[in-house]
Amino acid sequence: MILPIIAYGDPVLRKTGVEIDNDYPNLLELIENMKETMDNANGVGLAAPQIGKAIRLFLIDASPFAESDELEDKEREFLKEFKRVFINAKIIAERGEEWAFSEGCLTIPNINEDVLRKKIIDIEYFDENFVAKKETLDGLAARIFQHEYDHIEGILFTDKLSSLKKRLLKKKLDNISKGKIDVDYRMKFPNIKR
Q1: What does the angle CA 139 – CA 101 – CA 125 come to, to the nearest 5 degrees?
Q2: 5-188 under CATH 3.90.76.10, yes or no
Q3: Is the pTM of this model over 0.85?
């Protein structure tokens, strides 16, 4: 089932997600619905807060990036298969140079901005079967993970922009929160009283 994606301005996007266990109600159905929702919106990641659930769960399907000619073959091959469910994920370490890349977000449609992030991360998480995993990610895989991880920490990519950039985007962000945006996927807009 395709779920509505929560728009910028909703308080759930600012909550730190709570850990879940394998008794979480209808978890596999939720994961399947999130996959369908992400695919319908042409996303490469979707975190539970983006569908209104403040839990530590997100999905990544980086395969669309495998089409890029700008990547080396090794990274392109990895991204083609980088489709995962992350439950109760933790970043253990971040290292390497920070690098800029233009990020966007299904919650903040039609806005893309350069965000600085570390190139390499060490992570721990559980997969959808609650099998514990440890992994090192780099490049675009690390970036996508960090973006989705921020969602379960109550952080949006716009939080990482300069104060000037935030001021320049304020009207666009306000319009998104009011539903004054044209997107080709279902969204749920916060009820804001001004």
Answers
A1: 45
A2: no
A3: yes
